[in-house]
Design a protein that fits this description.
Radius of gyration: 19 Å
Shape: globular
Strand content: 15-25%
Largest sheet: 8 strands, parallel
Helix content: 25-40%
Oligomer: single chain
Structural class: alpha/beta
Number of strands: 13
Distance between the termini: 21 Å
């Protein structure tokens, strides 16, 4: 696992001249691995694909010319890959879509002792709370390196916090952390007065296509690899919105332990904190959690888990 994470820390290519970025579904074959095509775009005269491994849920970008390609509808893709962890995760997220808050995958590996950490980077005037990353790395560097973390990023945050983004990428390139980049929408609109059923991405006039695809494009332009995960702003959605997001091939990720709300993590929890400087209580609670688990961390009895591993192993085999 550590070796796999090490190879993932290699610098991601920057795609600075993206054109015709669009949803494109299909089956890409390059022996011995089958890949699902999610997106297609052009950059400097070449055609590229955003691909997901249906077994591991890992994504990658590669030239289309390297693959045998069979275009499919989204319905055909889901049927063809119906026995894979990817498709099972999509199904579970849709089955939990009745909740207005916190739809999607909330927990991962219940048999493991540890958590998957997710930190949201919503639009903010404050700088990144780098203490989350440095304290996490300090706590785990002797037992788990690179240390995995999933960051839910908005387009606005990326474009207004270039120095913080460069620092995160540098930490990853040095092999100190491994980041899974989660799409958190582009604008993350929120109203102080509207009810939840009309708020965040449920607000009238929201362009879901822009919120999803523009964020992915900005990730690629900033040398970030879009994952197959999506987190709803405010954790707010409805069944229609969940189906829209899974219709982009994305798996909604919720949480069962939002630390700032006093929710305590259990074994396998997907923990939520905010790293954008707006939630000091949640950050302090996470640092306290690390200190309380120090003896178990030292004995490798309490670890942080990569979100890909957390989700795909839950749905692997006969689960």
């Amino acid at each position: 696992m550590l070796l796999l994470l090490y190879h993932r820390t290699m610098a991601q290519t920057t795609y600075a001249d993206i054109k015709n970025y669009k949803v494109f579904y299909g089956w890409a074959k390059h022996a011995p691995q089958d890949w699902i095509i999610l997106r297609q775009f052009e950059n400097t005269g070449k055609t590229y694909l955003l691909l997901v491994n249906p077994q591991t849920l890992e994504t990658k970008v590669n030239e289309a010319a390297f693959y045998q390609i069979k275009p499919m509808t989204w319905v055909q893709v889901r049927d063809f890959f119906k026995s894979t962890p990817y498709q099972k995760a999509l199904n579970k997220a849709e089955n939990q879509s009745v909740m207005v808050q916190d739809a999607g995958i909330e927990r991962g590996l219940p048999k493991e002792t540890g958590i998957s950490l997710t930190a949201d980077l919503c639009p903010s005037h404050r700088p990144l709370d780098r203490g989350i990353i440095t304290d996490m790395f300090t706590a785990f560097q002797q037992v788990e390196r690179p240390v995995p973390i999933a960051l839910s990023v908005t387009g606005i945050w990326m474009n207004k916090h270039q120095a913080d983004l460069a620092w995160l990428k540098q930490m990853q390139q040095k092999g100190e952390i491994y980041i899974t980049w989660i799409n958190h929408s582009y604008n993350h609109r929120v109203s102080r007065t509207l009810p939840l059923t009309q708020n965040f991405l449920l607000e009238n006039g929201t362009d879901i296509n822009y919120e999803v695809l523009e964020t992915e494009k900005d990730m690629l332009k900033n040398s970030l690899l879009p994952s197959v995960f999506f987190r709803f702003p405010g954790l707010v959605s409805d069944q229609t919105l969940v189906k829209q997001i899974t219709g982009y091939g994305l798996i909604p990720i919720g949480t069962d332990a939002w630390l700032a709300k006093g929710q305590q993590p259990q074994a396998g929890s997907i923990v939520l904190i905010h790293g954008n400087g707006n939630e000091p209580v949640g950050v302090q609670d996470f640092i306290k959690l690390l200190k309380s688990k120090a003896p178990s961390i030292a004995k490798k009895q309490w670890l942080l888990y990569d979100l890909h591993e957390t989700v795909d192993e839950e749905f692997d085999g006969n689960n």
